[in-house]
Each structure stands twice: as C-alpha cells, then as structure tokens.
Amino acid sequence: MISYKELGFVNTRGMFKKAMEGKYAIPAYNFNNMEQIQAIITACVETQSPVILQVSSGARKYANATLLQYMGKGAVEMMKNMAQEKGLREIPMALHLDHGDSFELCKSCIESGFSSVMIDASHHSFEENIALTKKVVDYAHPLDVTVEGELGVLAGIEDDVSAEKSTYTQPEEVIEFVKKTGVDSLAISIGTSHGANKFKPEQCTKTADGVYVPPELRFDILEEIERKIAGFPIVLHGSSSVPMEAVKIINSNGGALKDAVGIPEEQLRKATKSAVCKINIDSDGRLWMTAAIRKHMNEKPADFDPRKYLGPAREALIKMYKHKNEHVLGSAGKA
Ligand SMILES: [Zn+2]
C-alpha cells in the first residue's frame, strides 16, 4: 500500500474549489504510454495549469498496474524538475481512475497511489448506483482520496465503456445521490459522448463545406442541476472536439475515419463558466497522435526508429494540450 501523498499527488478537492471560484475547468487527460505523459506534463507545466492524469481500467491493463504507479511517480518528478529548470511554479497533479467499475478496482488503485477515483455504476439501478458509490466513498475518504460518481449514461465507446444510447441525467435525482453517497464530484450526461463519432450525421446540420454541426449540449439540464446542488463540482466526460484538421490528416494518409464529429469548443468554453470543474479529453489526443504518426510514415516510409514517428506525435499532443488549457478550459496560469 502506498499513499498518493508519498508519490507527490494531490486529491481533486482543492483544484475543484479554485476552479469553481475562478470559473474554469481542470483538464483530465488520459494516458497509457510514455509519450502521452511527457506531453501532458510539458504542456501543463509550460502553461502553468493544474492537471488530472487519468487512467482507465483498460489503460491499467495495457500499461501494467505496477509500471503505471512508477510512471505516475516519474511524472511528478519530471514536473518538479521541469518547473525548476524553466523558473516556473510546480503544478498540482492528481492521479485519477477513469470509469472504475467495481469496488475492488477502486480499492486497488487507491492502494497503489491514486489520489482520486471514479466509480461508474451509472448503468445499474439508482439504488444500486448509490450503494456501490457509497461503498467506495466510505473506503476512500478516510484515506483522503476523492471520489467521482456518475448519474445518467453517455453514449459511445471508449475502452471498456460503451453504451448504444445516452440517457440524460435526471436533475431530480442529483440531490438524493449526492447526499446519500457523499461523493466529491458528479459526472453528468447532457449530450457529450465517448469516442470520435459523438453524433450520427442525421443528428447534425451540415455547413456548405461539409462540416457536421452537432446539436447543442443540454445546458438547460446543467442549469437545473446547478440549482439543485449549488456549488457542487460537475464533471463532463466525452468532451473531445474531434478537430476536422486531424481527421483530414488521418484520412489523407491512408486512414478511414468516417463521419467523425465532436463537441464544438465554444460549447465547452461555455460549460467552464458553470459548475463544470473537470472536463475529460481523450479522443482528441488519440486523433492528433494518429494523425502525426500516419503523416510521418506516409512521408518518410524508410524510417523505422519509433522515436522518428512518436516524437512528432508527442509534439502534436503538446500543442493540442496547450491549446485546450489556454483557449478552451481556461486552466492556464491557474497552477
Ligand atoms: Zn468517460
């Protein structure tokens, strides 16, 4: 058993409090390999943004749970050294389990140095969701670990999480859920979705140059929830914007992404002004990484050193994370 405090992480409580007051959102970026973590740290130190490093159960299996623990530790040390070298402040970092699906998994993560966990029992009945979430909270809180719960179901596919249809969060359930479980933050469903195909073409309108414009997020539901639990931190999952620029690079270099569409950044910017304190972005990183690798392989077919194509992929990630912190989430300069 190792406490996150020994690894140098913080839980999300202080981050969310400041984000709520300052009307911005903390970025939650997923990682499962070295280039991603290097890019997240570099971008967040250079923009002086607090950050939540996020790991799904699929990523934990992929990277190896033990290695991941030390990658987390390494990330903190890299951040400290980089901040010192550049004469910048150290940034608050949380290590968070994304979509924990069982008490055992949450417990295992907490015991290996996670400072925050999500228990996603949103596909169970309301009563079962409350019971399981409370069980995790009861284990986590004495160890000063924060817990994210979820009400409502997001559509889309991401690692082990998939649902055909979304079910919006019902505002009348949130007071009871938050009170009975004791969670620290709540993921809600207001129209965001996992993956790179967040909406079907028939749900969108199309501009003259063929770009899909998705329907607006349900800000009315968000406002209703804010009225019920004023000042309580809200989380948005599935909030990648799926930039057409990246999709075009992928498809013009042998890729086959069809009808990809995300959440317009303007809508995310609007959400950061509300009680939304954490915004999850995973697909955009996957897309930019794939775009950079495909482009490099297409243009330099003789290269076979992974650093030659993973290096540009890392550069593309750094650029994207900085853009999010500075121009979408408003977290730049808040470390
Ligand atoms: Zn999610």
> In the CATH hierarchy, what is the class?
Alpha Beta
List bound small molecules.
zinc ion
Q: Can you count the helices?
A: 13
Gyration radius, in Å: 19 Å
How big a fraction of the residues is strand?
A: 15-25%
Overall number of structural domains: 1
Q: Tell me the CATH superfamily.
A: Aldolase class I
Order of helices and strands: HHEHEHHEHEHEEEHEEEEHEHHEHH
Q: Which residues sit in consecutive blocks of at least 5 with pLDDT less than 50?
A: none
Protein described:
This protein is an alpha/beta fold. It has a single domain, classed as TIM Barrel, CATH 3.20.20. It is built from 13 helices and 13 strands. The strands form 3 sheets. An 8-stranded parallel barrel has the order 1-2-3-4-5-8-12-13, surrounded by 9 helices. Strands 7-6-9 form a 3-stranded mixed sheet, with no helix packed on it. The chain has a two-stranded antiparallel sheet with strand order 10-11. The longest helix has 24 residues, at 306-329. The model has no long low-confidence stretch (mean pLDDT 95). Residues 99, 158, 194, 237-238, 280 line the site of zinc ion.
SSE topology sketch:
Elements: H1 4-7, H2 13-22, E1 26-30, H3 34-46, E2 51-56, H4 57-63, H5 65-86, E3 93-100, H6 103-111, E4 116-119, H7 126-140, E5 146-151, E6 155-158, E7 161-163, H8 171-181, E8 185-188, E9 193-194, E10 205-206, E11 212-213, H9 219-228, E12 234-236, H10 244-251, H11 265-272, E13 276-281, H12 283-299, H13 306-329
Parallel strand pairs: 1-2, 1-13, 2-3, 3-4, 4-5, 5-8, 6-9, 8-12, 12-13
Antiparallel strand pairs: 6-7, 10-11
Helix pairs in contact: 3-5, 3-13, 6-7, 7-8, 8-9, 10-12, 12-13
The structure holds zinc ion.
The site of zinc ion has 6 residues, from loops.
